[in-house]
Each structure stands twice: as structure tokens, then as C-alpha cells.
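Notes continue from the previous slide.

Worked example: a multi-chain complex. Inputs as given:
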Amino acid sequence: MLALEVRGLTKRFGKLVAVDDVSFGIEKGRITGFIGPNGAGKTTTMRIAATLELPDQGDVLLDGVSVLDDPRGARSKLGFMPDSYGAYPSTTLWEYLDFFARAYGLSGDVRRRRVGEVLEFTSLGPLREKEMSALSKGLKQRLCLAKTLLHDPSVLILDEPAAGLDPRARVELRELVRALASMGKAILVSSHILTELAEMCDGIAVIEAGKLKATGSVSDVTRGIQVATPVFVRVLEGPDRLERALHELPGVERVRREAEGVVFEHAGTPEALSGVLAALVAAGLRPVEFTPRAMGLEEVFLSLTEGKMQ
Amino acid sequence: MSARARSDRLNPVLLKEIRQALRSRTFAILFPACLAVAVVIAVAVLVDSSHKENPGPDVFLPVFVVLEIAALGLVPFSAFQSMAGEWDEGSHDLLVLSHLSPGRIVLGKLLTAAVESALYFCAFLPLLLFTFLLRGVDVRDVLFLVCTLYVASLAMSCVALAAAGLSRVRFLRVVLLAALAGLGFGALVVGAELAQQFVERGRGFGSGFAMDELLVLTFTLIGSGLIAFLFAATRIAHPEDDRSSGPRLAFTAILVAALAVFGFGLVGNVSQRDLFEVASVMAVCISIPAICFVTEAEKLPRRVRANVPAGAVRAIVAAPFLPGGGRGVLWYLLQLALIAIWAFAVSASVTPSPVDNAKGWDAEGAQRWFTLIAYFMVYVAGFSLLLRRFTEKAGGRLIARLALPVLALLSMLLPALIGFVFGIRGWESMRHPFFPFWTIGEPNVRYSFTYVSLIGVAVLVASAPRLARAVGEVLAARRVRSARALEVATHGG
């Protein structure tokens, strides 16, 4: 069973269709990156899944519990970290977590132990008596994540958790998210930093103008859209001869210079590609580098989306 | 039970807010400042009044006014800021996602206001009681005024919480805060006047104390506080949650309590005309929330549909209290019926009076009652029927709610205007059947009674399909729920 299942979700704001028949799912222990330009419908989808907005059509199931029919039941399965989180002035970290633990119905030793556990997990233990207002953005994000984990939810929805963080804080957050996935939690995370997501996520869901453009593992999505493989070649004879030789070979397209070598695109089979290498050698060229390049998440994103704004 | 175990039972919002308040500078500065101002004023007035035989009232009043400023100004302002902060800091979503119900969130804020207010009262009470030793002030009056002010402070805090939840737009909240300040100032003036009457003009417990006035005051404070509390809780609830049943039940409870209190006071002691006036005022009061209920979207919200009572009889009984415009009309009819039954019961006790010769129900009295209910039917149920198609969206509902009283007013003014323009005899002077003050005031005008009754019956007939759909939807939801429960029981989910 999928831990998070989005079924035919549609949400309109007046004439604007913010989310248009979006469906995807996440299994336990998997991290899915939710990618899309600003205004694509990411936050709306996440807020619907978090029971904070209502869809016009469709439903979201959290561990099989409908967010529409049983929002209370769904909330007990869910940990939601919004892009803007509440910080209470004049409150220490421990008091903040203690308050939310109480709000989630935890009491007595269970509550105290759980607050201690999440503080330790997020490495905030030494700062427990520090006031929230004195925390950096990265520490606040970690605190918000700690709050999200208090009731031990099975599904985590993280809306732009890495926004505004410095590189070290981003790396630390990524490690925390990976650790949570290894505990069996299903995680949906949105971010604009695609390299960040590429290193963190098992799968992606790409959304633009409310419509889901692609969903699945990064390699599946790449295979689905990649019609030609870019290949970087460098030969001892220099790029001029290489470029001329490549232009004469069948199946080779879009030849262009890059650094000391040449990049070309090839849409054929791996056997045909090895034939290109053999032909270059046969032409008297001595290759020192012949590297087919996989598409990065940024290329996938750019290939799938058209930069449509709503 | 240990202190730790006791703290588990506390409202989490109360605990959090108290922790925050203990560290905040605002309270740490304002609390001693208020106390210092009160002490300085008390000493100054005492020195100034030292030649008087009974300087108690002179000292009591300014100290009481300072306490009023704290209780009706600072404490509600703090409650307002606390609720507004939840929107501004973005913590509202996090609270809603927790296991705290909207009612518990608002209750936590209210309890915080109660504690804050109690601290002011504890600090001021010795000062106020000291005026008893100065002579001229009855200790019972002091305690009564302090208790009343405390209740008023809680009611005002409820209003502040409701006002803070009214808008998420900061500019509008500033406007609301200004309105709240105006209300607080008004309450302060009324409170000061009441205190003056008690301690200076001898209307306190010692002499001339009016129990019925106290009853009305207490009822007004608790009633308005309860309504504001429910409103605040409704504002932070999810739109698909049941935001209507609580207020409907509360208003019914308030009406029943009011009927019981007034009935107790009026039995055997009122004329038919006075009874009619009291009932009319109650019907007008209950029509105000009814305007909101009859203009709700017709359909049951999905989350409510999944939780309608399982039994058919219970579902039918619950129908008037469930969200939906049609069910709002049912609720309104129920309230009017309660008022009519109450009036009938009280009027049965009325003895013939030499002044208006009233003696229970007669044809004229019945006609007047029937006309009154017909008018309310037209104004609330009839006009809401016309505006029903606007109520599916929030903006439309707001327009419909504003339009209802406007339409009622127009129905009174337009015939007079038409009469004036077209020269219809009598109408130009507001003596037409659509002007209730004339029709009810002149019950002998038979044709008016006939017109109004016919329109009332027509509205009821036109509303019948709406009412049937309103109940039918509840019963259908009940059937779906029963079928699902059976399915779960049979197949184990």
C-alpha cells in the first residue's frame, strides 16, 4: 500500500485551475521531490494533502486514510512542515516542542521522552533552553522538523525546507531527511534547488501550471524524455579534426565544442554508440575521453516544463 | 496528583501563553505601571479628601477606573494580539494540524486572559477594599462591582478574540482594533457610571439595588461573551468542518435561558401588550444569528456528512442544528415556535388588568402573534429563498447577509414610496400592510392581517421543497454512513 496517494486532485481558485487532475503516490521509506516553477500548484497540492485546503475533486490518502472523510485520522499520520512556520516569541526550544507535544496529546513521561528524542535527532539538544528568536534560519528549520516529528508521523510533507539555508545547513537537513526515510517514512519534499533534490530523492513529481508532467524515479523520468544521449569526446589530435570526423558519421547530431573536446548527441542503441567510437579510432583519432552524459534533474525539469506561469 | 500530572491536564495554549507572558516585557512593564498609577491616584485623592467625613467613594472611583482600563483595555488587547499573532507568525496552520480543537485553542487564549485579569484584580482588590475602611463604601458593593468587572473583562476578551479572527489582513485588523478600543471605552464609561451609582448615589446593596437590572447585565455579559467565543472558534475552524452546529446550539440555549429567566420574572405580572413586546424583542434578537444560518451554503459539508447521527430519529432531530441554509430556516422556525410556546404559557398566567383588560389569548392577540411570525418568515426565510443561489461562495454569502436586512427595510419603505409617487391613498403615510409597526399596532385593520398572513403562508409553501431537501440530505447522509459502517463491520474495512 502506498503511504501517500494523491488521486485525481483538482483545485480551482475562481477561473484559475491551480491543480488539475494530479495523481501520484509514494511508498514507505521513499523520498519524492515535488518540482515545479513558482505558482505551479506545489504548495496547493501539499496543503490539500495536509488537510489545510479542500480540493474541488479528488482525494489524498495518508496510509489509506482519506484527508476528506477523516481529516483527524489523516492528521495523526501526517507531519507537515510549511514554508512559513510559526515561531513564538519569548519561547525556548524545549517549551516550543513541549507545547506542540501537549497539543498532539502526548502526556507525562512519554511527552518528555519524545521531546528529548526529537531534540537529539535534530542535534538541537544543547540549545534546548535557548529562545527561538535567537536561532538562525537553519536551526529554526531543524526545530520545525523536530516539531513535525513529535507525534511520529508515517508521512512527511516538507514545503521548501531548504529555502534560505546556507550550504552547511542544507547538507545537514538533507542528511536528516535521508535518515527519516531510512526509518520507513514516506516523504514528499518540494524545493527550487534541484541539485539538492537530485541528491536526496528516490523519485520526482514534476508539476507545471497545475498539471503533472511526469512522475516516477529520476532514471525512469529521464528515460521517458531523453531522445538523445549527449556524449563528451576528447582526442589527442584536437577538437577541429574530431568535429569534422563526427559530422561525417551516421546517427551523430548537434555537434558542438565544449572545453578541450566536443559534445555530440546520439539517439541510437549502445551498440551504435560504440560503433561511433570505433569509427573515430578507424579515422586515425586517438580518444582520451568518451563519456555519455546522463541528464541531470535540471535538464529533466527544463525538458519537461515550458516555463508557463499561472 | 503530582504537579507534573496536573500540568498534563492544563490547556496547552494556556501553559504556552503563560510561559510567554512571564518572559514578555509588555506585562512586566504594564502590570506594575497600572498598580503604581492607581496607588498614586488613591493617595492624591485621599490627601485631597482628608477633610471629608466619608472619603471612601472619592478614592474608590478613580482606582476602579484604573482597574477598568486594565480589565477592559489591556487584557482584551493582549488577547487580540495573541490571536492575531497566530495568523501573522504562520503558526495557525500548525495549531490546526495538532489535536487541539478550535474550541480548545480559543479556550486556552481566554483562560490566559482570565489569569492575566485575575492578577490585576488580586493586586487591586486590597486597594479597593481599603476604601471600605475610609467609610462611605459598602463592601458588598465593592465585591459586586469587582465581580461584574471581571465577567465584563472575560466577555470583552472573547470579543477581542473574535475580532482578531475576523480578518487575516493586517490593515483590517487595525480597523477592528480601533473598533474594539471604542467598544472598550464605551464599556469603561458604562462601568464607571455603574460604580458611581453604587458608591455615590446609594443604589447599591444598602438601598435601591435592582435585582432585575443585575440579571439583565449578567445575562448580557455572559451571553455576548459566549457568542463571541463561539464566533472566534468558528473563525479558526476549517471551512469544511462543522462551524454552524455549535453556534446554533448555543443560541438556542441562550434563548431557552432567556425565556426561563424572563418567564420566571413575568409570570402573573405582565400585560398582554408587554408580553408581546418582550417576545418581539427576542424574535428580533434571534433573527440576527438566523440571518447567518439561513444564508449558509445549502449542501452539507463533506466532513459533516460523514458524521451525521446514525439513527433516523436522531438525524431528524439534529437536522435544524446542522449546517446549511435550508436547515437554518428550520432552526429559525424552531426558535420562533419556542418563543410562541413560551408566550402562550406565560399569557395563560396573565390575570385581567384594569389598565388594558388583557386576559390570556383572544382572537386579537392570536392575530397579532400570527402576523408577527408571518413578518419574520417573510424577512428571514422568504428573502433568503430569493438570495439562495448567491450563497454557494463566501463572497455571495456576505452579500446575501447584508442584503437580507436591506430587503426587509426596502419592503417597508418601497410601498410608501410607490404610494407617494402614484398617489395610492394611505400608503404614502406608511399605513400599508408591509409596515409591521402599523399592522401590528393596529390589529383591527383586517385586510393587512389577511395580506401578511397570506404572504407568510406563501413563503412557507415556497420554502417547503427547500426544507424537505434540507432534511432529506441529512437522512441520505445517515443512510450512506450506516451502509459504510455495515460494510466495515462485514468486511473489516
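Summary box: Chain A has a mean pLDDT of 87. DSSP finds eleven helices and 14 strands in chain A.
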